[in-house]
Design brief:
With 374 residues, the protein is α/β, with parallel strands linked by helices. It has 2 domains: 250 residues, Alpha-Beta Barrel (TIM Barrel), CATH 3.20.20.70; 72 residues, Arc Repressor Mutant, subunit A, CATH 1.10.10. It is built from 15 helices and 17 strands. The strands form 4 sheets. A 9-stranded mixed beta sheet has the order 9-10-8-7-6-5-4-1-11, with helices on both faces. It has a 3-stranded antiparallel beta sheet with strand order 12-13-14, with no helix packed on it. Strands 15-17-16 form a 3-stranded antiparallel beta sheet. The two termini are 30 Å apart. Its main location: cytoplasm.
Length: 374
């Protein structure tokens, strides 16, 4: 098994762009931890099928939990599966949640990788996104994490933000690099239905940035991180040698994983499963022994589209032989699309793999869409 993802659905305030399932406040925290530990025991058989390589606490905001909560959750995991030899044990944290005692406790209970949700080192932009922390708190969070002994630190940044200048974006990148972290994730802002930003977009309060700006910002990012020795191993992820996110890389490689907590997704063979995105229903259904998830069996078309999407997002690309093992009509369509996009200089082949050309990386999503079977 690739790993375990654990979703912590609490935030102290909601960011304007975020569409991940979360609730503001901690009113059901105690009941949630009990239900989560029960889910771990319920899914004992799944968790024992294969060796577990990674565990990832995401959210929401995992760092709003108390250390005792993590100890209880980890103890439940240890009851049903072996996590003594994890390659990677990650927790997402907000800069304003952490202090040295908290970080020391995280290390003590086994975490060896931090993913710090910084998003920007510009206070105006942080306020625009409704982030809780300041740029100075972001800087201090990284420095504290290093002082606590964490040697595998990732930070998140966002570009494509309305009214953000190229100079502001470059300054955030330069600050991130100067902190000597091992990993940077940089995502283009998207406007997802149900978010505050989407509502403001529809009300014409602000507009999406133009494609020209997005490309310019992405190119500045690539130039800066490459110069600093980072490998662009996935369209939005950059690491120093040896510091790929092992957990996320396993998703992109199509390995199985188990998702625990409300809204968490699981995958094995052709089965995709997702827990309900409702905390009270999640808690009550587990308590009553009722079904707390939905699932689907992937069709041949689903499998093909997923192989294309996951493969082309990475530097390694999609394995052509694997795609040629699909249904005859899909293979024919794939070959046609491949030749078309090679002619357009969007993709190229290398060692039996199909890859997106370096100067077309920013267009990866459009290229992937062209390959999709609908």
């Amino acid at each position: 098994m690739a790993g375990i993802y654990i979703h912590i659905p609490f935030c102290m305030q909601k960011c304007g762009y975020c569409d991940f399932y979360s609730l503001v406040g901690l009113s059901d925290k105690k009941e949630f931890v009990v239900a989560l530990c029960d889910e771990i025991r319920i899914r004992k058989e799944e968790l024992q099928r294969e060796p577990i390589q990674t565990v990832y606490f995401g959210g929401g905001t995992p760092s709003v939990l108390h250390i005792k909560d993590f100890e209880n959750i980890i103890a439940s995991l240890k009851e049903v599966c072996d996590i003594a030899e994890l390659l990677e044990f990650t927790i997402e944290v907000n800069p304003d949640d952490i202090n040295l005692p908290f970080l020391d406790d995280l290390k003590r209970i086994g975490f060896n990788r931090l993913s710090i949700g910084i998003q920007s080192f510009n206070d105006r932009i942080l306020s625009f996104m409704n982030r809780r922390h300041s740029s100075s708190e972001a800087f201090n969070a990284v420095e504290m994490s290093k002082k606590a002994g964490f040697e595998n630190i990732s930070i998140d940044l966002i570009y494509g933000i309305p009214d953000m200048t190229l100079a502001e974006w470059k300054k955030s990148i330069d600050k991130a690099i100067s902190l000597k972290v091992q990993h940077i994730s940089a995502y283009h802002l998207t406007f997802e239905p149900g978010t505050a930003f989407y509502k403001k977009l529809k009300q014409n309060i602000f507009r999406e940035v133009e494609d020209k700006q997005s490309i310019e910002q992405y190119n500045v990012l690539i130039k800066a991180v490459t110069k600093a020795g980072f490998d662009d191993y996935e369209i939005s992820n950059f690491c120093l040698p040896g510091y790929q996110s092992k957990h996320n890389a396993s998703y992109w490689s199509g390995y199985s994983y188990v998702g625990l907590g409300p809204s968490a997704h699981s995958f094995a063979a052709r089965t995709r499963r997702w827990n309900i995105s409702d905390l009270k229903k999640y808690i009550n259904n587990i308590k009553r022994g009722e079904v707390f998830y939905e699932q689907e069996i992937l069709s041949d078309i689903d499998v093909y589209n997923e192989k294309i999407m996951l493969g082309l997002r990475t530097k390694n690309g999609a394995e052509i032989r694997d795609l040629h093992s699909m249904d005859k009509k899909m293979v024919q369509l794939f070959n046609e699309k491949m030749q078309k996009n090679i002619m357009l200089k969007n993709v190229f082949t290398q060692n039996g793999r199909l890859k997106v050309c370096k100067d077309k990386k920013i267009l990866t999503d459009q290229i992937i869409s062209d390959f999709f079977v609908v």
